[in-house]
Protein 1
Amino acid sequence: MTYGIGDTPLIRANGLEEKLGIDELYLKLEGHNPTGTHKDRLAIQHVDDAIVRNYDTITVGSCGNYAHSMSFVARKTDLECNIFTPKKYSSHLVDKMKENGAEVFRVVGGYEEAVEESRRMAEKNGWYDANPGRKNTPISLVAYADISEEIQDHLEEKPVTLSVSVGNGTTIAGIHLGYRLLWRKKRVEGIPKMIAASSLGNNAIIETIRQGSRDILELPPDSLNETEINEPLLNWRSLDGQEAVNAIYDTDGTAIGLTDEEIVHYYDMLKQEGIDSIPCSCTALGALDKYLDENKVEGKHVVVITSGKFEEK
């Protein structure tokens, strides 16, 4: 990794262990990446690929964090960066994208429409398409496989569970790939149970597992209940959802949805421990807590906080 991306802290959460009754709890704080989220890992992987393949322009459809990461990494290179984002979103990150030199196009509709317009323009103009899913899935999964390596280097053994928030499912699938590779190299004995966390009733991965399907389902687009709290988690069509579902079943894991009230509860809990995070990231902690309430599993547990940063009190 370069530009300060990767090698994020893994900290022992002693205070949360006591509050939640967990033996050993570790938080992987992806907010220590330069733009404050795990998306920096994905952006640099695709920028590197675009440069190797001699593209001069890269594009992505995003509601915020991934586009911000892409504009940051592209600014470090000679790549032009074109972002497509829903017109209805008025995120402060749009200004940061522009400050990084990206051109931002506003699209009528939601996240899926922004991705489709980005893909359409990439094909039309010969730009590098950095959107999740389809042909980009292998590259995207490799981007997050490094998280497994970093956790293994720190703990020197596999955790019993690994919990992560999901939207498209790319992150949890990439971490699963990373552990698979470690297992094949005989650096770990087995793979942790993968726990996917998201907004209750608003994510295709969660609903697929809840319904017992091994094939990713699509939700009716008009069935989603979008709020300021759950917006980054909403996906009626998770673009890397099948890979995420495969990871969950492969490890005898699970997928758990949380209400907005529950998300805020775990956000406040992390805040009290000095972790400043976007609320949707906190679903990973909530899902682990719910899982351990029903499954008394002892050992080390890792929660990936995709935007969390530790602040000294």
Note: Residues 137-155 form the longest helix (19 residues).
Protein 2
Amino acid sequence: MPPASSVGKATVKRVFVTGATGFIGAALVRRLVADGYEVAALIRPESNPWRLGDSLDKIRVIHGSLESPATLEPVLADFRPDTVMHLAWHGVEKARRNDPAQVRTNVCASVDLLLAAARAGCRTFLGAGSQAEYGPSREVLAEDSPTRPVSLYGAAKLATYVLLSQLATQHDMRFAWLRIFSVYGPQDDPGTLVSYVVNELLSRRTPAVSKAEHLWDYLYVDDAASAFIATGESQAAGIFNVASGHAKPLREMITKLRDAIDPALSIDFGAIPEPPSGAYPLRAAIANLERVGWKPATAIDHAVSQTVAWYRHHSSSSL
């Protein structure tokens, strides 16, 4: 596995974040604020920033869109970030994974953002990639594993990585690409398996799931946020898998969620049929993040407890 290009410490003081109202982006902004960074966040005027809570009053909010790159030039020139953390992406929802807008909306917008950041004097650019770039695999996925995306979403992420990597080199910017695996926690999107299972159980219904015997790597959202910060603070560049590095049977996670709500509740394992070839596991190697001194800090029982507690106080209609 190729190591990150170099490891050391750098001071990140001023961070420009895109995707700040999303599940991981909001957790990242909250963590940056708590750690004392100066943060500017690009937020669409129509976006609901509910996930940011009182952090919204502690950051510089820039209303705009990546689809209007000309509007970003004066903003970036004024804020002069030393680091950009780019998490915004159109079409993350499963139903839109093969929408042609994956290419039209995301790839060029990401390129324009990096170029604008370079002109503003930014020296470090972190982008959010995805395990979808690798495609389905029965192997443990390392940063040098073959990339065989099977959706436009994965292909657009991979294309964005290639283009941004080249452009960052041309503009003498440190570039890190963080491939996110499965993340869960409070404020999760409603369409995820964790959200579905928890909401069904809290409603005293029986969730219908697969046999869930395949291995799956889940990472708590606060740990995902800390992975971005650890990478930003280092001198490392390259690809970083953002995962726990400890895949466990999916059934174990579902059962933990149930037990945190009520161990007497039922789960219909096997109600959702497996594909004829069997379910693919999701397993990650995280050596590059470990080299920058990062590892998951949240015990799974605490993470599950926090997740369930949040859903107890928020109906699915409020997500």
Note: Residues 101-119 form the longest helix (19 residues).
Protein 3
Amino acid sequence: MRMLIVFRKTMREILRDKWMLGLTLAFAPFFVFLYWLWFQGGSTVYPVAVINQDQGVTLPDGSVYNAGEQVSAAIQAVTYSDGRPLLKVIEAPDQAAAEPLLRDRKATAFLQIPPDFSQTILALQSGDRSVTTTLTFGGDLSNTYYMIGANLALTTADAYVQQATGQKPLVNYVERPLGASATRSEFETYVPGTLIFSIIMLIFLAAMTVAREIETGALRRLQLTPMTSFDLLGGITLALLLVGALASMLSFLVALALGFHSQGPVWIAVVVSVIASLSVIGLGLVVASLTRSVSQAFVVANFPMALMMFFSGVIFPMPAMTLFTIGGRSISPYDILPPTHAVVALNKILTLGAGLNDVAYELTALVSLSVLYFLFGVWLFRRMHLRSA
């Protein structure tokens, strides 16, 4: 009963603070909308600077055969499964002209076709296997798009050579994508990560809501009542959990309205988000226990927020780092962060069409973290602020 009283009180205070509530609810939908604006035309197009120095060969019928031009056309013709362009050719006369394009990242990589390329292709067509030629490629290796652009351009050039010379590849490769991952637009691949934003942002609201009780003196008045720290933090957690559920569902609705298609049950993804919200709220309680004002809580909350943003796989994949193994599963330092499991679960559900049983491990981890952080937050809050309770 006392917990419900705190719940109602906290909800009234949250509703009064329209700016904080609005930012919490709008943060993730706003980023979903931004990603849709950036990638609504399809997916990323990778520009490749092609330095075609092929001199070509004049055939007996008077026509000119230029294999370099055909390779350039083949690269330009590479598309996604829906027909949208994947590669874009930028012609450059020499490497000196290509380098500014690479430095300014107007091109992801360069491919240099040698002067004797057409002659070599014709010789190979005639059965002469003694000839050879060299295709040179390169670029800014610190550019995250370099490997994609270079690999696709080289693969396309290699396929052209095999087709033009009638040679068969030494090894055949067959790609079998998981679920619907091959048909996802780039916008859809980013949706699971952006949905986690609505969960991570709850740490500010949780920390600042509890800190407000301390700063305004309301906590001291509550100490005069039979209310326990469990009642207080439990009621606040229920209110914040309601806000988290609303933020998650709003984010999902915006994503679906903008064309996102989930391959698995959306309700399971919402459950994952709500449970992850509970564990993040627990982290917020821990932060609040270490502070005495709203401004302090805001500053301190930035540290765990940054950890969750950059070390949980939300923005970019994390390298493998195994601490120990349980039941055949590797446990890494990142596993103490709730978004780590939430990102994996949402990708399984939304992209690979996983069901409830397929994300049982992630759900178990999220529930365990939620209980752990909440109980630790209650203990720390009692120790730091309710010594006399």
Note: The CA atoms of residues 160 and 233 lie 66 Å apart.
